[in-house]
Amino acid sequence: MDPLTLKLQAQSAISETENVKKLEELKITYLGKNGLVNQMMKEIINIPSDQKQNFGKKANQVKQEIQLLYEQKLQELSQEGKQQEWFDITMPGKKPTHGHLHLVSQAIEEISDIFAKIGFIRARYPEVEWEYYNFEALNMSKNHPARDEFETLFIDAPVNEKYGKIVLSTHTSSGQVREMLRVGQPPIRMINIAKCYRRQQDITHTIMFHQFEGLVVDKNISIKHLKGTMDYFVKQFYDENRKTRLRPFHFQFTEPSFEVDINCAVCLGKGEINGKKCRTCKQGWLELGGSGMVHPNVLKAGGIDPNKYSGFAFGWGVERVYMMRSDVKIDDIRYLYENDIRFLRQF
Ligand SMILES: [Zn+2]
Predict the structure, then answer these.
(1) Cα(287) to centroid of ligand 1, in Å?
(2) Structural domain for 150, as ranges
(3) How far, in Å, from the CA of 93 to the mean position of ligand 1?
(4) Distance 10 CA to ligand 1 centre (A)
(5) What's the gap in Å between 58 CA and the centre of ligand 1?
(6) DSSP readout, 110-139?
(7) SS3 204
(8) How far does residue 215's CA lie from ligand 1's centre (Å)?
(9) Helix, coil or strand: residue 95
(10) Do 211 and 317 share a structural domain?
(11) How far is the CA of 332 from the centre of ligand 1 (A)?
(12) What pLDDT does 85 receive?
């Protein structure tokens, strides 16, 4: 058979094929070891020598063309097959793995929502911060002993004449003066939730943790507003039966300063259960975190006149507050950051 006739014959046979099985049969018929193409090639011995070269060239070309026709058809048929599969609604689907937010992210969202309801605006300030905003602006001058408590991590960088060294912010309070400078004039209602860093690691501390910092500055702000805000938060975040108490304390950047305690959910604030000492709390109360009335020096650093305005602030650990929920039974804070999926799936 001459090459062109063979090509036309293969072409029509392949184009009429409707399934892969028949196509494979045609492949053997034409391109197989003893197939029509190879038989045609063998005929070269009967061709006059002056036409051999021309015949060989044509025969090779036809072989390649048939091979290409076969491949194109195979692709076409297998795609049709796939499309048919997609329409098979009886096929059981594969379930993709469902992720969810990390429990610390969940807590942050919840805390933001609770404070948003009473007009606090979410803010975020640098985690890599000047020493000035972390300490000096908060009434802790250079070499003040209170700085030692912060277990600060310093960045190896040139020191600025005004702002000092660069640190990893040790508390969200570093955002207080930045917020005052940003807003300019009160009222200020900020909730700053951010990562903090301290050189400390044990069952209640991780080197990186989160704080939420509330700051309210306006005319005639008093301790009553602070207490009311604390009570509102614990009722929303824990339950209706929880209340707070303020215990006098000392911080450099607030005056007066308080530790905020919450009544224990296990013994309901009694400190004992059936005559036995409660193991969860200290005499019916648990410590939540620090708070106080903004120190006049801090207001001044933020460009606010302490004779006209006053304010309160509080800074609490997100992880700590979350772990104190009675439905969350985590006794080691480090579990939160081990990224063990078996642990995280439970929340
Ligand atoms: Zn208790």
Answers:
(1) 12
(2) 103-344
(3) 50
(4) 89
(5) 96
(6) HHHHHHHTTTPEEE---SEEEHHHHTGGGT
(7) coil
(8) 30
(9) coil
(10) yes
(11) 19
(12) 59
Instruction: Give the count of domains, the chain.
Output: 2
Question: Ligand 1 center to residue 286 CA distance, Å?
Answer: 8
CA of 273 to the centre of ligand 1 (A): 8
If asked whether residues 173 and 322 sit together in one domain, one would say: yes
Low-confidence residues of the chain, pLDDT below 50? none
The tens digit of pLDDT for each residue in 128-169 reads 999 999 999 999 988 888 888 889 999 999 999 999 999 999
Task: State how far the Cα of 343 lies from the Cα of 336, in Å rounded to an integer.
Answer: 8
Ligand 1 centroid to 321 CA: how many Å?
A: 16
* Ion ligand 1 neighbours, Cβ < 5 Å: 264, 266-267, 278, 280-281
Residues 300, 269, single domain; the answer is yes
Res 88: pLDDT? 72
pLDDT tens digits along 244-296: 999 999 999 999 999 999 988 778 888 888 888 888 787 889 899 999 999 99
Q: How far is the CA of 8 from the centre of ligand 1 (A)?
A: 92
Evaluate the CA torsion angle 303, 306, 307, 309 in order and state its sign: positive
Alpha helices in 87-222 (DSSP H): 103-116, 131-134, 174-183
Span from the CA of 230 to the centroid of ligand 1 (angstroms)? 20
Domain boundary residue among 23, 47, 80? 80
Same structural domain, 121 and 190: yes
DSSP state of 249: E
* Per-residue pLDDT, 87: 67
